[in-house]
């Protein structure tokens, strides 16, 4: 009997594995070149982030982190770069809330350095100064998103 209990515990123990990390899509545009190169470089950088998760199989998920960086110099768009950095992750043995957190915060934090490097490489190849994006606290962003979701659900709940 004790042997069966051990097997059950092993099967239910949380497991996490990175199957693959890959660049799913990328684009770079410098719509105002060469004009943008004639101005003093004082860019205004805007970063938009998004994540999406797709279930591929039982316990196997694709997480896609999309980063879009827009650099404006004066009022002109100097460059626009978008990267979809993806990963396939095996995640088993977690409760629904833990799984949601893992896919929504932990996996994007793994993908971010790859996306940041891809963006920096494209910006450099576009002849712009290096762009090293600051680290992102995906746990804090996830907590903020969950708080906003809970607040929205509370506001939508019918008042008695």
Automatic annotation (TrEMBL):
Q: Give the Gene3D superfamilies listed for this entry.
A: SecB-like
Q: Which GO terms describe its biological process?
A: protein folding; protein tetramerization; protein transport
Q: Which GO terms describe its molecular function?
A: unfolded protein binding
Q: Which UniProt keywords apply?
A: Chaperone, Cytoplasm, Protein transport, Translocation, Transport
Q: Which InterPro entries match?
A: SecB (IPR003708), SecB-like_sf (IPR035958)
Does the record carry Protein transport as a key word?
Answer: yes
> Could you name the Gene Ontology cellular component terms for this entry?
cytoplasm
Say where the protein is mainly found: cytoplasm
Q: Which NCBIfam families match?
A: PRK05751.1-3, PRK05751.1-4, secB
Q: Which HAMAP family match?
A: SecB
Q: What does this protein do?
A: One of the proteins required for the normal export of preproteins out of the cell cytoplasm. It is a molecular chaperone that binds to a subset of precursor proteins, maintaining them in a translocation-competent state. It also specifically binds to its receptor SecA.
Q: Which PANTHER family does its entry note? A: PROTEIN-EXPORT PROTEIN SECB, PTHR36918
Subunit structure and binding partners: Homotetramer, a dimer of dimers. One homotetramer interacts with 1 SecA dimer.
Name listed for the protein in its UniProt record: Protein-export protein SecB
Source organism per UniProt: Amphritea atlantica
């Amino acid at each position: 009997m004790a042997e069966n209990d051990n097997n059950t515990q092993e099967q239910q123990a949380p497991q996490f594995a990175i199957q693959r990390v890959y660049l799913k899509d990328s684009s770079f545009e410098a719509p105002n070149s060469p004009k943008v190169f004639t101005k003093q470089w004082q860019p205004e950088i805007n970063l938009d982030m998004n994540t999406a998760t797709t279930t591929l199989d039982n316990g196997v998920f694709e997480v896609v982190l999309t980063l879009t960086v827009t650099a404006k110099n004066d009022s002109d768009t100097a460059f626009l770069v978008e990267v979809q950095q993806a990963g396939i992750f095996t995640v088993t043995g977690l409760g629904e809330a833990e799984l949601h957190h893992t896919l929504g915060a932990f996996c994007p934090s793994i993908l971010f350095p790859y996306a940041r490097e891809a963006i920096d490489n494209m910006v450099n190849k576009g002849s712009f100064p290096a762009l090293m994006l600051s680290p992102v606290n995906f746990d804090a962003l996830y907590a903020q998103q969950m708080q906003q979701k809970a607040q929205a659900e509370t506001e939508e709940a019918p008042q008695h």
